[in-house]
Amino acid sequence: MPVEQQRQGATAAAHALLLAGFSVHLDPTLNVLATADGDRQAAHRYLEQLVERAARASDDQEVAGVLTEIAAPHDGLLPRLVQTLISTWAPWIQRLENAGHEPEPAERLMETTSSLSHHARQIELIRNQAARPTAAPAPATAPAPTTPSKPPARRR
Hints:
The protein is mainly alpha-helical.
């Protein structure tokens, strides 16, 4: 099987597992959405596809699939964004402190990152609710009343 076809299959399989609610790590060399040079256009295309899927979602399962892409632990967009922000914050605050500068901007970044992480977890919980099968709708008419049964006879 050609390499590009293998990459497409691996990417499709990873996305199918994500949509089913699994946490998936896909090697970037197999991910057709990732490029060696960090192509921002591929990321933008992916986000546009996600926007389109969200707009077309016609049931709770499709909504859950979009929310999985956004908030799945480790592989979702928000957790990865949080990881990137933490990786930005840690060396930045050290540089500020080592230079004797006020670390306040870096501290605000960490507070904002913490809030974003909390919201990502909330979205994950919402995703879990959306993924649950909904109960069957109640009947339109009330069932006919049942006649009470005779009370048991008393023993003497």
